[in-house]
Amino acid sequence: MKQWITRQDGLEKLELVDTPEPSDLDDGDVLVKINCVSLNYRDTEVCSGTFGFHPSADRKDEPIVPCSDICGTVIKVSRNSAYQKGDRVMAIFKQSHLTGQMKEQDFESLLGAPLPGCLTQYRVFPSAGLVKVPQYLTDEEASTLPVAAVTAWMALNTFQPLGSPLKGRGKVVLIQGTGGVSVSALQMAHALQLTTIVTSSSDEKLKRAQQLGATYAINYKKNPDWHEAVLEMTDGKGADVVLECGGADTLAKSFKCVAFGGQISCVGYVSGKDASSQMNTNVLALSRNVTLKGIVCGPKDRFEEMLQLYQETEVHPVIDRTFEFLEAKTALRYLAEGGHMGKVVVKVA
Ligand SMILES: NC(=O)c1ccc[n+]([C@@H]2O[C@H](COP(=O)([O-])OP(=O)(O)OC[C@H]3O[C@@H](n4cnc5c(N)ncnc54)[C@H](OP(=O)(O)O)[C@@H]3O)[C@@H](O)[C@H]2O)c1
Asked: For ligand 1, what atom is nearest to the CA of residue 340?
């Protein structure tokens, strides 16, 4: 079989290699034929060697298969497997994180560094590391959910009890950008009837966001004081939840437009990692009684909780573009350039 490997030394050095198809299954394992892989910003960082916010990702001695998010079909089962041949499955990003708050050792179980990833034709998974695909979703659509959508779900619901997601027009969610996580957040927030404010560098993308249900839209390039626009749109109250994707350029402004007692869900850092020069976090957090929460995707049971909403509302994830398996390098480059809206998918089978 074929798989892509990286030595975490640059996207351009990603290499397609031949390797034996896996044949040994431990008790509970299944062999999955990978149908589609969706790409995340993190995958580009792993290939470039710049993902490094935890020591588990810093082992660069051996080449590794990148990427985490799949939809595949079970083609071989072992004793005590929870799946049958023919089942369509998605893999959970943190293979050991099944419920509750994340523990530090869960960092050891991330697919696509430090664990071998999924940009490959076949891969063995333990049953516990998989969830079933809702029937209405295509393989491409399902492959987009494990990281982007689950992260968005947790950004909204991390403090909500399981089974009781945030709901209703009275709650305002600020969503930064129109990448994979943000568009998933918009779609689920719309399905939950939350009020949404989306920011983007592109009027075109904002128009699309409004078609997807965004209540308000702000171009953050044309309006660098977007935090003030958020306050105006909410009659001075601010956003109850901020999906913080920007990092260095956005965090200080997020503090200025989060509601009193609100939550900033720190998800990413697409504009840079160091926001410290612009802000005094302790004073900002205190003065508006803000909760700042780091989100690292979510556990399996919250993924399944999210799938219930998808099932009930038949949300179709937004796919920007699909590439062939042999074009995986081009696909990762395309994602890294940032022109997309929603998810970029590589078709493997
Ligand atoms: N914590 C987690 O578990 C987790 C999971 C997934 C992703 N992430 C992180 O979350 C971030 C987004 O991931 P992704 O996969 O959605 O990335 P993506 O698909 O590459 O999207 C990135 C988007 O960020 C927007 N952006 C760039 N600079 C911005 C700024 N200054 N202010 C506001 N938006 C800005 C752009 O939107 P426009 O083109 O509309 O301007 C761009 O499309 C990344 O940092 C990623 O590492 C974290």
From this structure: 43
In the reported structure, the alpha carbon of residue 318 is separated from the centroid of ligand 1 by a whole-number distance in angstroms of 15
Question: 57: Cβ below 6 Å to ligand 1?
Answer: no
Helix (H, G, I), strand (E, B) or coil at 169: coil
191-236 pLDDT, tens digit each:
999 999 999 999 999 999 999 999 999 999 999 999 999 999 999 9
**Percent over 90 (pLDDT), the chain:** 91
User: How far is residue 165's CA from residue 118's CA, in Å, rounded to a whole number?
Assistant: 30
pLDDT at 58 over 70: no
Single pTM value for the model: 0.96
Q: Is 342 in the pocket of ligand 1 (CB under 6 A)?
A: no
Please determine, looking at this structure, whether the domain spanning 151-294 carries the CATH number 3.40.50.720: yes
Q: What are 109's two structure tokens? A: 């179980």
> Which two tokens mark 245?
């994707």
Tell me which fold the domain 2-144+317-347 belongs to: Quinone Oxidoreductase; Chain A, domain 1 (3.90.180)
Closest CA to 135 of 302, 314, 305, 303: 314
Q: Nearest Cα to 182, choosing from 296, 341, 344, 346?
A: 341
Name the token pair of 268: 């990413």
Is the CB of 265 within 6 Å of ligand 1? Answer: no
